[in-house]
Amino acid sequence: MANKEFIRTVKFTLFSISAGIIQIGLFTLMEEVFKIDNYWICYLTSLIASVLWNFTINKKVTFRSASNVTVAMTLVLCFYLVFTPVSTVLGNLAEINGVNEYVVLAITMIANFVLEYLYTRYFVYKNSCDTAVDKTKQDVIKDGQKENNNI
Q: Domain residues for 8?
């Protein structure tokens, strides 16, 4: 069981890194290429893109949850209804007061990573981890006989 949780944590970390690359890439594109000189617009846009990616891949691969997508996404939305305004306001204040926007972004991304993992694992998917059916290895009952449907 501990090994399974360790592997789940490693998967979440790796997928979060990919989401972080999406967030940093989009944030940088908006800041440096499109010259959007407004921290919160760049931050919110890049955060939303990374959250959608991270939620989708982690539900399927990391947590392997068969829970209702709408319910799970609503619960994740509740997390972000608190995290987003707090991190946006504090990040904007820090940036206005001279803290480099990339330092602010790094700090909020680390906080997001830790808090989101704990919330997602122990609240959103608390009772539904590993409940998704692997359709390629699903047993099929055919003519009263149990057959293994390895595709």
A: 2-127
